[in-house]
Amino acid sequence: MTACDAEPFGLAHGKHEGIDIYKVRELGFWLYLCSDAVIFSLLFATYCIMVGNTAGAASGSRVFELPTAFFETVALLASTFTFGLVTLSAARGERRLTIGWLVATFVLGGVFVGFELSEFVRLIEMGAGPGKSGFLSAYFTLVATHGLHVSAGLVWITVMVAQIMIRGLTEPVVSRLARLGLFWRFLDLIWIGIFSIVYLPGVL
Amino acid sequence: MVLPPRAPPTLGSYVLGLALAIGLTAIPFITVGLHIGSRTQVLAVIAVTGLAQAIVHLRYFFHLSFDTSSRENVMVLLFAVLLIVIMAGGTLLIMSDLNARMAA
């Protein structure tokens, strides 16, 4: 992996030619993430088309609250940072620290999902549920798809904590941890699109 | 976009990425919250800071660059961007064109 880069030119050649199964798995997971990005881009496009179709129901400036979007952004960004600390701890083989930062990431991700669920409940209670207009359908589809991804990430974090506790930081476990890291960072990247396209223009 | 050679992730790179991301998040939220500038200006600020933050994330959190160890990943990403431009951009173009024709 990174150790190969440090070797003199030529000596590392054989290693680069050989198949590194974990590199292949990471590339395969990257393919999945890019296809997921295409799905999200189409949900974004649908939202952009539907944003004006409020059918007499609530528009974005009436239903969105800037503080909620801000706290969700802070929670997700902080969790991306704590996952960086997971990666660093795992690379140094520090098992307890790795688990600790994973738990911190889980808590921040849980706070994010909690904010999102409370916002959905608030909207539905004020009569702005997903069935009210094209705008609200597109909004709930886009944001809830992202929220479901984050929830799946929370399950995955739980599984990884169990694997580290039972098996330790073995090569397959660290490799899975790296792919979970890619997934988690990807979700923060999608969230940048959500607050830039949905919430910020919505409250204007 | 030519990025510097890939470095192994360090605490410094994550802290720098976090600081840049916080700044690029704060700017659009403050602009919108305090109603600074016209609607077009605010939307431009949101677009520029959003794109900049996406690049910061790819550089400092994903550690993507154009060296040999992540070239395939960058190629796949560029192909996905091409698909997104064709599919999402095409959707927006066709639907806005239809909207203009129906409204006219």
Present the secondary structure layout.
The complex is a heterodimer of chains A (204) and B (104).
Chain A: H1 2-6, H2 13-17, H3 21-50, H4 60-63, H5 66-91, H6 95-125, H7 134-167, H8 171-203
Helix pairs in contact in A: 3-7, 3-8, 5-6, 5-8, 6-7, 7-8
Chain B: H1 11-33, H2 39-60, H3 71-103
Task: Jot down its keywords.
heterodimer; A: 204 residues; B: 104 residues; 0% strand; disordered N terminus
Task: Explain what you see.
The complex is a heterodimer of chains A (204) and B (104). Chain A is built from eight helices and no strands. By secondary structure, chain A is mainly alpha-helical. Chain A has one domain: Cytochrome c oxidase, subunit III, four-helix bundle (Four Helix Bundle (Hemerythrin (Met), subunit A), Up-down Bundle). Chain A is elongated. Chain B has 104 residues and is an all-alpha fold. Helix content of chain B is 75%, strand content 0%. Chain B contains three helices and no strands. Chain B has helices at residues 11-33, 39-60, 71-103. Chain A binds chain B through residues 2, 5, 16, 27, 30-31, 34-35, 37-38, 41-42, 44-46, 48-49, 66, 69-70, 73-74, 77, 80-81, 84-85, 87-88, 91, 182, 185, 188-189, 192-193, 195-197, 200-201, 203-204, and chain B through 6, 8-11, 14, 17-18, 21-22, 25, 28-29, 32-33, 39, 42-43, 46-47, 49-50, 53-54, 57-58, 61-62, 68-69, 72-73, 76-77, 79-80, 83-84, 87-89, 91-92, 95-96.
